[in-house]
């Protein structure tokens, strides 16, 4: 089958409309009450079109979420490891706590508890690549002599992101900039980096 | 109304049977599929009896959970802060990952996302008292000169328990004893305690 440029454009438009509708519905109704029917109606596409691209509701929502997350919180390297960790964590905290992504992610996390395939996909597509990026950024700092050679970098990543999940799950207030800065300082000190002057 | 000793014993027996039935059903069916009807049938008590003591399914399960947790992971003070933190965290990790409590708590956490009253109750009855206990244990170590006077103790508690929740929510493998020991060492170093010899 030959796909014309205008049909590709239409496809991409439908894809974007579907992802946006899915996120909007998560915010309005809560993840549990979103259906493929409602996403299709809101996006102005057929259910058949949605099922052609995604196997399930959770797959649609996860893709919407991953798409947006990748653009919003890139892991930059300014040469200042503390500043870069603060910027990354701050972006992640805002993302996880703000509609439409916050409620969508909460719904995904909740669904993961009785859906092994979804849990596996979320770890593989969303969580593990971001942990790897964080370890890679720490490793570059290590290569530049800013972090001791024997530092436990995966543990540092868990100490950085653990409190964010802890607060999210328990629905405690999100970390503010001051708390994020304190956490980064503490994690760096934990792996042997002397405090900044 | 005068309550006879034998009726009090019957009540306590019904209460325990209800809590045990609730936890067993969480393990077998998953929190979401447990009903008050099923709990009543399993415990051999009437629905009316259950509703006389608890307002909702989540209240029954939360009480079962809190009852068991308080007995299982007390915060001891042996004088060795690192050992006491390891023992406490290790108890909490086992608790959160083992049936029947693991699945029950996962269900409660999941339900908290669309039940503000439950979230409030879980924090007030379960989480906050345990955070306070941990801070109190750290404060005693501080008073004994084992931790610097300016240490940020609430942050230390989040660094200790955050990774456990992070793994639980993302359904990563639970922390083993070696990882727990490494985390405790790192958190203590983060708040200014020199590594053990």
Percent helix of chain A:
over 70%
Shape of chain A: elongated
**Oligomeric state of shown chains:** homodimer
- The CATH homologous superfamily of the largest domain in chain A is termed Tetracycline Repressor, domain 2
Range of strand content of chain A: under 5%
The most extensive interface between chains reads: A-B, 39 and 39 residues
| CATH class identity of the largest domain in chain A | Mainly Alpha
| Rg of chain A, nearest Å | 19 Å
pLDDT averaged over residues of chain A: 89
**Count of helices of chain A?**
9
Could you tell me the number of beta strands of chain A? 0
Structure in a nutshell:
Chains A, B: It holds the Pfam family TetR_N. Chains A, B: Residues 12-72 form the HTH tetR-type domain. The structure is a homodimer of 197-residue chains. Chain A has 197 residues and is mostly helical.
Describe the structure.
- The structure is a homodimer of 197-residue chains.
- The model of chain A has no long low-confidence stretch (mean pLDDT 89).
- The longest helix of chain A is centred in the middle third of the chain and has 28 residues, at 116-143.
- The first copy, chain A, is built from 9 helices and no strands.
- Chain A folds into 2 domains: 5-55, Arc Repressor Mutant, subunit A (Orthogonal Bundle); 61-190, Orthogonal Bundle (Tetracycline Repressor, domain 2).
- With 197 residues, chain A is mainly α.
- In chain A, helix 1 crosses helix 2, helix 1 (5-29) crosses helix 4 (57-72) and helix 4 (57-72) packs parallel to helix 7 (116-143).
- The A-B interface holds A 30, 32, 106-107, 109-110, 112-114, 119, 122-123, 127, 152, 155-156, 158-159, 161-172, 179, 182-183, 186-187, 189-192 and B 30, 32, 106-107, 109-110, 112-114, 119, 122-123, 127, 152, 155-156, 158-159, 161-172, 179, 182-183, 186-187, 189-192.
- Chains A, B: Residues 35-54 bind DNA.
- Chains A, B: Residues 12-72 form the HTH tetR-type domain.
């Amino acid at each position: 089958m030959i796909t014309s440029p205008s049909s590709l454009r239409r496809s991409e438009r439908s894809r974007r409309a579907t992802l946006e509708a899915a996120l909007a519905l998560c915010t309005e109704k809560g993840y549990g009450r979103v259906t493929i029917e409602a996403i299709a109606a809101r996006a102005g596409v057929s259910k058949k079109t949605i099922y052609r691209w995604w196997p399930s509701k959770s797959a649609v929502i996860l893709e919407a979420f991953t798409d947006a997350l990748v653009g919003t919180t890139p892991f930059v390297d300014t040469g200042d490891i503390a500043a870069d960790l603060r910027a990354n964590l701050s972006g992640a905290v805002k993302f996880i706590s703000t509609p439409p992504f916050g409620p969508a992610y909460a719904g995904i996390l909740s669904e993961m508890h009785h859906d092994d395939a979804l849990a596996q996909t979320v770890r593989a597509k969303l969580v593990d690549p971001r942990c790897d990026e964080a370890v890679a950024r720490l490793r570059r700092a290590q290569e530049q002599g800013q972090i001791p050679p024997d530092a436990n970098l995966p543990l540092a990543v868990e100490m950085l992101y653990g409190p964010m999940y802890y607060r999210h799950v328990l629905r405690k207030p999100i970390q503010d900039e001051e708390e994020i800065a304190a956490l980064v300082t503490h994690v760096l000190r934990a792996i042997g980096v002397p405090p900044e002057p």
